């Protein structure tokens, strides 16, 4: 026995959620007094599927934390929180029946 109740609301909720995370590093397009600026950070997010107007939809919540830096001349820390909704149109694939 694994200690979790089968059919538990919390368990069902976590089975449906898609988690995402990542790290990134990129050179910025700016060069300040000969110093190449760069950006580094990490992302964390999740998506939860829902049914909206008989269409499949996803609710997204993403967090991006990072730093832009160019030597001692530029240092910027940032946090970005993003909320989004994706609605998929599934009617393209429905087979129509006509009398």
Q: Can you offer a commentary on this structure?
A:
By secondary structure, the chain is mainly beta. It is built from 1 helix and 4 strands; from the N terminus they run αββββ. The protein has one helix at residues 9-16, and strands spanning 18-32, 35-52, 55-70, 74-87. Strands 1-2-3-4 form a 4-stranded antiparallel β-sheet. The termini are far apart.
Structural class: mainly beta
Estimate percent helicity: under 10%
Please provide the ordered H/E string of secondary-structure elements.
Answer: HEEEE
Radius of gyration: 22 Å
Distance separating the two termini: 54 Å
How does the overall form come out from the CA principal axes? elongated
Summarize the main sheet: 4 strands, antiparallel
Low-confidence stretches: 1-5
**Portion in strands:** over 45%
Extended strand count: 4
Mean pLDDT: 82
Provide a count of the helices. 1
Identify the strand order in the major beta sheet: 1-2-3-4
What's the layout of helices and strands?
Blueprint: H1 9-16, E1 18-32, E2 35-52, E3 55-70, E4 74-87
Antiparallel strand pairs: 1-2, 2-3, 3-4
Write out key terms for the chains shown.
single chain; 99 residues; mainly beta; 64% strand
Summary of the model, kept short:
The chain is mostly beta strands and 99 residues long. The protein contains 1 helix and 4 strands; from the N terminus they run αββββ. Mean pLDDT is 82; it is low at 1-5.
């Amino acid at each position: 026995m694994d200690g979790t109740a089968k059919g538990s609301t919390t368990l069902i909720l976590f089975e449906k959620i898609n988690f995402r995370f990542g790290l990134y590093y990129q050179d910025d397009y700016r060069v300040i007094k000969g110093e190449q600026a760069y950006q580094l950070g990490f992302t964390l997010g999740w998506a939860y599927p829902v049914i909206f107007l008989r269409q499949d939809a996803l609710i997204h919540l993403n967090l991006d934390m990072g730093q832009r830096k160019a030597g001692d001349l530029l240092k910027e820390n940032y946090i970005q929180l993003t909320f989004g909704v994706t609605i998929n149109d599934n009617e393209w694939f429905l087979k129509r029946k006509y009398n």
